[in-house]
C-alpha cells in the first residue's frame, strides 16, 4: 500500500530558531507531569507517606509494578478496552464505508435529504441522547455487555461524513470502466473502490479507536459491573479512593501501566497516525 | 412457542450449571476502598487493619468457609450511589450493597429495596440483637431494610506528642480539650504559638461530607430543630450562623489547615502536621496501629475523643452508620440463602469490623472482653448516647450534603458571606425537597 | 454527466441502510425521546408524569445551572483560544524536517492517546496539596503552595491546564497539515521582497490557513463545551461549584438527584448552545474570510 509521507519542506520560512526554543520549553511542561508520575510509581508507598519530595532521592523500587502483576484488575480492564474499542472501530469502518460510498457515488430517492439529516447528526452531542439511550439499553438488557458498550458509537455521523468526502474525491472514470464490464455495484465497491480508500480507513480507524479508547461517560453508566469496566472506568474507580486504597505509588504505577498499550501502539504507528491526522485535515 | 423454548433452554442450562458445580454466585458491591495488593489473599481477619483491610479479609474468610458460594466483589468510588442508581435503572443491581443509613429512605421509599427481617430470622439473627441506634438506622415503616453494620461519628483525633509540646495536657495525661467556641480558638492559638503547626486538621477541599457533618453537630449542640419538617430545612437561623461563623473562625484565625482534601488530611495527621484531626471513627484502627510504631509522628501519642460540646444546649454529635442492603431483583432461593449466610457471618464478626473504630451494631460486641480491651474505646463510648442522626424521613440526604458542603465551604473559605451561603443552601435544599 | 448506471434506484439505498438503522435507532430516536423526557417529571426507575415546560423553566431559573453555564463559557473562551494559539505556535515552530522537530511533534501529540482518567490522575499528582509536584516545587523555592484544586479560580484553571495539555496534539497536527498546503511560491515572492518574518506570518501564512483555523476553532468549541471527566475527577466541580461544567450539572441532576426529566431538559439546552456557538463561529469567520 502506498503510504503518503508528509514531508516537511526544509526551506519553509515559518520555522525559525527562537520558535524552536519556545517549543522546547513547552515540551518540558509537556513532559514534567509524566516524569513526576513515573517517579512516584517507582517509590514505595511508605516513603511517599513521609512526603513526596522523596521522589528526588534513592531508593527506588519496582514493588508497585509487582503488586499490579499480582493483584490488580488492570489486565481485565485492558482486555475490555481492547475488545470494545476494536469492535467499535470495525463497526464504524464498515458502516461508514458502505454509507459513504452510497452517498458519494450512487443515486437513490431522497439521497440529498437523507444526507443532510445525517449531517445534522454531527451536531448532536452525546449529552442530548445519553439519558434516553441509557433507558433504552436498560429495556434491551444491553448494559454490562460488550455490545452495549460498542453500539452507541455506531451511530456517529462523523465517519459517514469523512468517507463520503473521500469517495467523492475518487475520479469518476475508475468505476465507469468497471461498469462496462458489468460488475455489480457491490463488487465495484468491494474490489475497486474500497482498496482506494485505505488511507481514509486508517484515518477514520485511528480517530475512532482513540475516541472509543478514551470514552468516559457512557461506560461509566453502562458498565457498572467490575468485570465489564473499561480501563478508563477502572482507573477512575481506584483513583477516587485515594487514601483508603493502595497509596500514591501504586496508583501511579497503575496509571503508567495502563497508558503503556496506548503509548506503544502510538509509537509503532506514529508515522502513520501523523499522516492520517494530516490527511484528514487536507480537505 | 418461543417462550416455551426459552424456558426449556433456561431450565436445561440451570440444571446443567447446578449439576456441574453447585456454585451459588452473589454480587457484592461496596465502598471502603480497594486494597487487593495488601489483602487480596488474607483470610486471617484479626491481622487486618483499617476499613478496607478488614472488610476485604472478612469476605475472603467467608469465601474460604463457604466454598459453595462465590462472592463477586465490586469496589466503587465512595459513596457509590450514582453507580447504584445507574444499575438500578438498568435492572443490573448487585445482590448486596453497602449503604449509609441516611441513604436507605431514598431507595426504600421508591420500592427499590427488599426488607431483610425474614431473611435474618431464618439465620437466627433477631432484630433485638442490634443496638437501638443501629436498628433505627435501617428500620423503615416497621421493617428492617438492611443489615446494620456499625454506627459512626466524626471525632477529634489527637496527636498527644504535639499537645504536650503545646502545654495542652492535664495532669492525668488526658488532653485539654475546649468546652466552648472561644476556648477552641484560644487553645488553637496557644497550640499554634507553641508548636508552629496548625491546631486542627480539617478536610476543607474537594469535600462536602465533612462540612455537613460538623455543621449538623454544631446545630444539634444548640438544639436547633433545623429539620422540624422533613420536607423543609431551616438554615437562616442564629444557630446556623453561629455554627458556620465558628467553622469560619478556625480558618480566619489560622488555627486550621486549609486546602487539604480527604486523603491529604489523613496523611497530614499521620505525619504530625497538626494537633487534632477532625475525622471519622473509621480511622481509629489505622492511627492506633501507627502509634505503636516507633519513629512515627504518632508514636505512643495518639488519643481520640468525640467532638467536644462547644455550645451550651446539649452534648451531641451527628451520627450515621453503614449497612448492607438487598436491592429488589430476582434471585434464586440458593442466592437468597447465601446472602442470609453472608449477613449472619457479618453480624457474627461485627467485632472485627468494630476494630476499625466504628461502634458495633451488634449489642453483644460491647460486652466482649476483646472489645473492651480495644484501645481508646472508653473515651468515645459516650457517642452511643450523644450520637444523633437526621430525622429518618428526610430524603436525598446525600444530595443535601453536597449542597450544604458547597455553600458552607464557600462561607468558611471566605468566598461568600455566611448569611448568603446559608440562605442559598436553604433555598437550594428546599427546592430539591419540594420537587421530589 | 448522464451516466446511466447513476440512475436513481431504490436498491442503491441498500448501501446506506445499515448505517441508517443505527442512526435512527441510536441517535434520532433517543434524541426525540430525550426531548419527550424533558417534558416529564420522571426519575430513573419508572415512568413519570407530563409537566410541560416546567423542567425548562426550573433549569433556567436554577442558580446552579446558571453558574455551570458561566463556568463552561469561561472555560471555552479561555481554553479554545489557548489551544488554537499554542497549536499554531507549535505548528509554525515544528514545520520542518529535522530529527528534533519530528521528536517534538511526536511528543506533543502523544498525550492525546491517553484516556481522560489517566490525564486527570497525572494532573492531580501535579496539583494536589502537600504531595503534588507543584506543592513540592513551591516548597523547595520557599513559596507557600497554592491549593490549586480547591481555590475558586484556580480550580477551573487547573482543569483547563490539564485539558490543554491533553488536547494540544490535534490542533497542532491540523495546522501542520495546513501549513504544508501553503503554496511555496508565495514565500519565494515574499523572500524577494525582503518581507519581515512577522509580515510573512500575518500577510501570507495566516490568511492561507484561515479555513483550518476556523475548522480547528469549531471542533474545539464543540469538544470543550462537553467538558466533563476532567472536572469531575479533578475538582468534582468545587469549590462551591466554581468549576462545575454544564455536562456535570446534567449528570448530577440525572444520576445523583434522580431527576432525569430535568437532566434531559438541561441537555437539550446544551445541545442548542453548542449548535448556536458553532454556527455563529462559522458564519462570523466565513464572512471575515470573504471580506
Automatic annotation (TrEMBL), chain A:
PROSITE patterns xref list: ABC_TM1 (PS50928)
Function: Part of the ABC transporter complex UgpBAEC involved in sn-glycerol-3-phosphate (G3P) import. Probably responsible for the translocation of the substrate across the membrane.
Protein topology in the membrane: Multi-pass membrane protein
Keywords: Cell inner membrane, Cell membrane, Membrane, Transmembrane, Transmembrane helix, Transport
Main location (coarse class): membrane
Pfam families the record matches: BPD_transp_1
Subunit structure: The complex is composed of two ATP-binding proteins (UgpC), two transmembrane proteins (UgpA and UgpE) and a solute-binding protein (UgpB).
Chain ranges of the ABC transmembrane type-1 domain: 78-269
Species, as recorded: Rhizobium oryzicola
Record-given protein name: sn-glycerol-3-phosphate transport system permease protein UgpE
Automatic annotation (TrEMBL), chain B:
Superkingdom of this protein's organism: Bacteria
Keyword terms of this UniProt record: Periplasm, Signal
Keyword Signal set for record: yes
Keyword match NAD: no
Signal sequence range: 1-22
Principal place of residence: periplasm
TM stretches of this protein: none
Localisation: Periplasm
Similarity comment: family membership: Belongs to the bacterial solute-binding protein 1 family.
Protein's UniProt name: Extracellular solute-binding protein
TrEMBL record, chain C:
Location in the cell: Cell membrane
Annotated PROSITE patterns: ABC_TM1
The keyword Iron appears for this protein: no
InterPro entries xrefs: ABC_transporter_permease, MetI-like, MetI-like_sf
Transmembrane segments annotated in the record for this chain: 12-36, 73-94, 106-126, 154-179, 200-223, 265-284
Keyword Transferase: no
Membrane topology, record value: Multi-pass membrane protein
CDD domains per the UniProt record, alphabetical: TM_PBP2
Family annotation (PANTHER family): ABC TRANSPORTER PERMEASE PROTEIN (PTHR30193), INNER MEMBRANE ABC TRANSPORTER PERMEASE PROTEIN YCJO (PTHR30193:SF37)
Family: Belongs to the binding-protein-dependent transport system permease family.
Protein name: Sugar ABC transporter permease
Organism name: Rhizobium oryzicola
